[in-house]
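COMPLEX REQUEST
Ligand: adenosine-5'-diphosphate
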Amino acid sequence: MTQTLLVINSGSSSVKFAAYDVLPDAALQRIANGRIEGIGSAPRLRVWGQSGEPLEDRRISVSDDPVLGPEEAFEALFEWLGQHAAGRTLGAVGHRVVHGGELFTRPARVTPAILAQLAGFTALAPLHQPHNLSAIRAIASLYPDLPQVACFDTEFHTTQPWVAQACALPRQITEAGVKRYGFHGLSYEYIASVLPDQLGAVANGRVVVAHLGNGASLCAMRGRRSVSSTMGFTALDGLVMGTRCGSLDPGVVLYLMSGLGMSVQAVEKLLYEQSGLLGVSGISSDMRTVEASAAPEARQAIDLYVYRIAQQLGSLAASLGGLEALVFTAGIGENSASLRRRVCEDAAWLGVALDEETNQAGGSGARCISTAGSRVAVWVIPTNEELMIARHTQAVLQGRGAHDWRSGRV
Ligand code: ADP
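STATUS: Structure written out below.
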């Protein structure tokens, strides 16, 4: 029997998943990936095979009732896996959990007590944490004996110096856990693990990685460890995102409540779900749609998106004392040549010189897009958070605590 590991990244209305076989030499091989979309409205299960070939695309329904919750969605997923996994046994499920707070600095095998502690961080990541945890609960109720492992987006940033983590608030507030945690850690950890393959010695120098997806942040690394990030206490801070505002004068929040009479819930919805590219463009949170629009508001949304990246890239370069490499990753970073060009133009003062031909050329693997003479090496490196989660899950199952990505290639 081949042992298979399932990786789950659960969001508000969709669940992304990937399944990996553990090969005899302990290497992991992805055998399928997919998503369940439209949970709570018209859910669909879509699965792709090893080479990206479509394996499944169908509506999920129970007794003709299309409105399903996460439990029924996972039931459908496990049913599909059961039908397509002859000769395999499911060893564990690894989950992306956005916030581990101060308590979790390594991946953890989930117990009811740990689940309760993680639920305590829901207010710190309202867009993600409840959905991450409801996936764990749904699977636990279906398969109580199946090991589940939580992998945290905050973990990679625990190496940051005190000054990068601190808020200039009274000590007792900081000591109560109000500090800058940083997010997208599983993505940064994966990029850090493959940097030496691409950048050679520069990998251990002063590097900024730009994770630009629906959520977006920058991470400054030295020695492939996080020293600073644009995200802070919550995943709201920093760059402009699909629906999140990024950095905001905290006085605005006070004014929204005391001046405009908005409730805490209304402010939370505004800042997490109605701002960013969507709020500024008034068109979409999706960069492809915004880029395709000729509306002046769409142009302004992209101008602001680029301006904030360029501004905060300068800030992180200052915290590193210079910049030797800039890496673009995630949906926008990997796919939008025009966005990369605009960021690089604004970063020319740092020594960035883009090779526009290689930038435009596209491709799916890691590639260098700076000129031979550029003082800063610019790269596109596809991220792979799922593989990182699978590696950690395998390590926890084997009693190794966490995957030691510094020991070699993942
Ligand atoms: P998530 O944070 O949900 O994992 P992704 O990393 O998949 O998100 O990134 C989603 C974003 O990437 C969306 O804004 C989408 O429009 C953008 N994107 C994907 N492909 C392209 C492309 N070819 N050009 C511009 N933006 C793209």
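REMARKS: Residues 100 and 152 are 6 Å apart (CA to CA). Residues 199-385 form a domain with the Nucleotidyltransferase; domain 5 fold (CATH 3.30.420.40).
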